């Protein structure tokens, strides 16, 4: 259904751009004419998980958010807009790196995408970064957490807009430790993601003056966490950190809630999204602390945008939806400023730009590693939800510099 | 020492649940000779149906404990009538493959309908909290689930060994020709036994709902542990499934306590050792091996 709509849009856009190109000559010289654009239009590619575990977090609703950005851009510049024809193409990478790789190629080569957005899942995200580098086309990642995008795998055409695992660790581990939660025990799933999370959390807890008594590896996947939780409660910790994701996280939290540690020990979660809370209900997660890159009900500005989003989708936006909006809008602003959709020119406009918008507060597109740094938030799950999706109390705003730290020395733009 | 007792109790609590979950697998294999790979998917269906009953119809845990097994019984009857029955005469591998395929269909169907993020479920009223004795404590729900499981296992064991129905069922499978000669319609008993096994899987799913993640994939990992349980206990042996369920629960708890990384591996090491020493499992009949 959706792909058909997209096809229809492509057809209409193609016809319209032909007509525009034909009229272009008669329209008189104009500095912002469509001739400065490759293929006379700007194509934004949305490549994400449209059927699996991250569908609710980002998925098809991110196309709605990007369309909102396009509408806002057109409304702002009207006739002066450099990009008059803007088109969205989207594809499902099914969380597989090989599919992401071939879809990205298809988007850049055949669908003439000028920029690819989103791409959750770290392996898929890194595959697309390589494509962007080879094709010299822009890529703004939102959904993936890996620090390699702004580290060893960074490149001139890749930007990382919303968060990374280092931010989650600095946010959650740093803030809770400084607030008095100094003695930690960590349980992590025994595979690459869990081991990384364990390392970065341990590092941040120690840096903030705390200690990690035990780091316990659990087999992945696992159903029965009762004994893991008992073990994690030994040594009288103030905080138990769960580095699990998905089904393992839900198992862990449910069984933690049935243990005597509930209410006595702070439960900190490494990676959690508002969609996890929505699917399990607030009472299961009540009191859990985690780092959120953005929350829709944080202030009036966010709320107003969330209301617009709800009018179109009948649901509240996740941070990924807001970040897709912000990335698309700032990309179009950069095209406007550059007067062209040439990737090098647009990247030059973005680099070093300081941004305050609905998603980015005290934001800056850091030139050194293309991390888009901004304030993030330590959130605590409410015990009662006043309305659907109103699940978080923001405990603390973590300033951009503190959340992101120094640029990764492993990154060389070359 | 109190820690050791704590781990032991947690192992026993998990073991009771494993025993019930593996019971249906043992019953179906013991009576029909079918290795039902879809047992994990049926366990998942039990949990998903409970969550849907609660979320959409506000039907609580206690009702689900009765309604879900009945629904799953009907599902099992359909499965046997429409699919499994036609392959019974062939090599057991055919039904193994059939039920494996069915697992994939069921898991994908649930993903399509209910997504991948998991469904919410609450601990039933009165079963929240913990029971604490000295420095040892267990969650009330875990104790309930374990005791309930043991009661069901004993009841099923008695049903099959001490009642007339159980006698007919056993005779129908062990000596079908002779049983037929005595005027008993053997074919009539196969379908309800299969349905009964599936109902037990659904019942385990209901018990799992308050304490585990309810997702389409929840049975995919679990079925592997259940196979370890029935192989250790002896395929088809009900007593074996119960004893092995507790054994696996204990081994897992000690594994987590003293060598967390190897917690699941130790279960399969135990399985390998048992198969090496007694190929038919602890309580298996020789011909099963």
From TrEMBL, chain A:
SUPFAM superfamilies associated with the record: Periplasmic binding protein-like I
Pfam families tied to this protein: Peripla_BP_6
Ranges of residues in domain Leucine-binding protein: 42-384
Keywords: Signal
Keyword rRNA-binding: no
Coiled coil: none
Residues in the signal sequence: 1-21
Similarity section: Belongs to the leucine-binding protein family.
Name of the protein in its database record: ABC transporter permease
Organism: Terrabacter aerolatus
From TrEMBL, chain B:
Major localization class: membrane
Subcellular location: Cell membrane
Keywords of this entry: Amino-acid transport, Cell membrane, Membrane, Transmembrane, Transmembrane helix, Transport
One GO MF term: transmembrane transporter activity
GO biological process: amino acid transport
Keyword Transport: yes
Annotated transmembrane regions: 12-39, 59-79, 86-107, 141-160, 189-210, 222-248, 255-277
Membrane topology listed for this record: Multi-pass membrane protein
Gene Ontology cellular component terms for the protein in this record: plasma membrane
Family designation: Belongs to the binding-protein-dependent transport system permease family. LivHM subfamily.
Protein name: Branched-chain amino acid ABC transporter permease
Organism: Terrabacter aerolatus
């Amino acid at each position: 259904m959706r792909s058909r709509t997209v096809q229809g849009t492509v057809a209409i856009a193609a016809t319209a751009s032909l007509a525009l190109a034909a009229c272009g000559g008669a329209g008189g010289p104009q500095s912002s004419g469509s001739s400065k654009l490759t293929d006379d239009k700007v194509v934004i590619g949305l490549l994400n998980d449209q059927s699996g575990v991250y569908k609710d977090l980002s998925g098809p609703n991110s196309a709605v958010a990007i369309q909102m950005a396009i509408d806002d851009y057109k409304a702002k510049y009207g006739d002066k807009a450099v990009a008059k024809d803007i088109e969205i193409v989207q594809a499902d990478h099914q969380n597989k790196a090989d599919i992401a790789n071939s879809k990205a190629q298809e988007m850049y080569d055949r669908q003439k995408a000028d920029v690819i957005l989103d791409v959750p899942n770290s392996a898929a995200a890194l595959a697309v970064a390589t494509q962007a580098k080879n094709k010299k086309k822009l890529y703004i990642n939102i959904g993936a957490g890996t620090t390699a995008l702004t580290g060893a795998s960074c490149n001139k055409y890749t930007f990382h807009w919303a968060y990374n695992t280092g931010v989650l660790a600095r946010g959650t581990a740093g803030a809770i430790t400084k607030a008095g939660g100094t003695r930690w025990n960590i349980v992590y799933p025994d595979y690459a993601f869990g081991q990384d999370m364990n390392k970065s959390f341990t590092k941040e807890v120690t840096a903030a003056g705390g200690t990690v008594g035990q780091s316990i590896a659990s087999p992945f996947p696992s159903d029965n966490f009762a004994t893991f939780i008992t073990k994690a409660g030994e040594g009288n910790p103030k905080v138990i950190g769960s580095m699990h994701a998905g089904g393992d996280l839900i198992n862990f939290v449910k069984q933690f809630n049935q243990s005597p540690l509930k209410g006595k020990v702070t439960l900190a979660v490494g990676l959690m999204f508002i969609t996890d809370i929505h699917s399990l209900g607030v009472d299961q997660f009540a009191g859990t602390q985690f780092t959120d890159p953005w929350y829709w009900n944080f202030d009036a500005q966010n709320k107003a945008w969330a209301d617009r989003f709800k009018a179109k989708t009948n649901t509240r936006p996740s941070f990924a939806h807001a970040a897709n909006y912000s990335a698309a809008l700032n990309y179009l602003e950069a095209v406007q400023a550059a007067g062209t959709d040439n990737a090098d020119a647009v990247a030059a406009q973005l680099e070093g730009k300081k941004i305050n918008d609905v998603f980015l507060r005290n934001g800056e597109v850091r030139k050194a590693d293309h991390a888009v740094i901004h304030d993030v938030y330590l959130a605590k799950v409410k015990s009662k939800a006043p309305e659907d999706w109103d699940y978080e109390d923001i405990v603390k705003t973590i300033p951009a510099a503190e959340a992101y730290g120094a640029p990764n020395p492993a990154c060389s733009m070359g | 020492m109190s820690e050791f007792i704590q781990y032991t109790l947690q192992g026993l609590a998990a073991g009771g649940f494993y025993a019930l979950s593996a019971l249906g697998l043992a019953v179906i294999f013991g009576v029909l000779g079918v290795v039902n790979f879809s047992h994990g998917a049926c366990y998942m269906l039990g949990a998903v149906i409970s969550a849907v009953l609660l979320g959409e119809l506000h039907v609580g845990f206690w009702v689900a404990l009765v309604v879900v097994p009945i629904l799953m019984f009907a599902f099992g009857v359909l499965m046997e009538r429409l699919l499994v029955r036609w392959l019974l005469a062939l090599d057991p591998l055919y039904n193994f493959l059939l039920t494996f395929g069915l697992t994939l269909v069921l898991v994908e169907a649930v993903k399509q309908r209910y997504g991948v993020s998991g469904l919410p479920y609450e601990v039933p009223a009165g079963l929240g909290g913990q029971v604490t004795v000295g420095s040892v404590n267990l969650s009330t729900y875990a104790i309930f689930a374990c005791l309930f499981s043991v009661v069901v296992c004993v009841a099923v064991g008695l049903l099959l060994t001490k009642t007339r129905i159980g006698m007919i069922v056993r005779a129908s499978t062990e000596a079908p020709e002779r049983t037929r000669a005595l005027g008993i319609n053997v074919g009539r008993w196969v379908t309800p036994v299969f349905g009964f096994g599936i109902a037990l899987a659904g019942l385990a799913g209901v018990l799992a709902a308050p304490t585990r993640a309810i997702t389409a994939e929840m049975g995919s990992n679990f079925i592997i542990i259940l196979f370890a349980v029935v192989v250790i206990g002896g395929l088809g042996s009900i007593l074996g499934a119960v004893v092995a369920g507790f054994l696996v629960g204990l081994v897992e708890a000690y594994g987590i306590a003293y060598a967390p990384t190897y917690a699941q591996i130790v279960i399969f090491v135990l399985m390998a050792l048992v198969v090496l020493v007694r190929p038919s499992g602890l309580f298996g009949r020789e011909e099963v091996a």
